[in-house]
Amino acid sequence: MPIETRVALIIGLLALSVAAGLIWRARTGRAKQVTKGEIINLAEIGAVKNGQPVTKFGQKVTFLQFSSEFCTACRQTAKLYSELEKVHPEILHIEVDITNRVDLANKFNILQTPTTLVLDSRGRVTSRIGGAVKQQTIQDEIGSFEI
């Protein structure tokens, strides 16, 4: 194969990789609306907060975050939600570690961590956020709910 063809092939592969990375980055952390969201059963997923089982959803919105042990972005995302929860008592954040819960990863199609399911006050999934959440995305999701 001539050197010019090899160089062109390498440049083409680099351009394709950069384009794929930019598309992935643009989509990460943004909410995707769920049209027929299922109702989450907190007991079934083993939701725990401060060592106690969670039995009720947030009055306005619940952020159900799926994390894994070695996920740095998961800790940052949980911190954002926890700070928000302190300021707004009608908001609830639940973090579920799926490291050893393949059943939950399969059931909710978790392909990356963090993944956050946004739930209404009845526990119905209204949207899904893949990757580290953006502050504006959180504000937009909160604004879409009324108490």
TrEMBL record:
From which residue to which does any coiled coil extend?
none
Q: Which Pfam families match?
A: Thioredoxin
- Top-level taxonomic group: Bacteria
Residue span, Thioredoxin domain: 59-142
Name listed for the protein in its UniProt record: Thioredoxin
